[in-house]
Amino acid sequence: MRTVLQRVTEASVSVDGEPIARIGAGLLILLGVRDGDTAQTAARLAGKVAGLRILRDGERDEAAAGLIGAEALVVSQFTLYGDTARGRRPSWQLAAAGPVAEPLVQSFAEALAGHGVRVQTGRFGATMAVHSVNDGPFTLLLEL
Questions:
Q1: Contact between residue 35 and residue 78 where contact means Cβ atoms under 8 Å apart
Q2: Range of the domain at 137
């Protein structure tokens, strides 16, 4: 599993012009699933994300999302496993197929919620418009 994790002041997702999820200050999590990932991988990554001390707590950046009940918006993004090593057209061979990836994205979101994070999600497989205001800017890449 691979994620682009952004600390945001706000983030939202729309499908066909209709808003489906919105958070205030918290985390925008773009999540890619690869072949071989499991529910255990999702749970470990969720624990890592929930425990990272990267959110603002007053004037200092030291709070963990799980400890302060922060908001998170989880958006599946298979393109995180795009391979551009050869040619000009990305290969998606490393990304898990939809029937494998979808339950693992859901598993990640549920595990994150289990750590006390208030989770909203995008819509798996949909063409989504994602809006975010990066706080910092602060962006991390995580992979398990």
A1: no
A2: 2-143
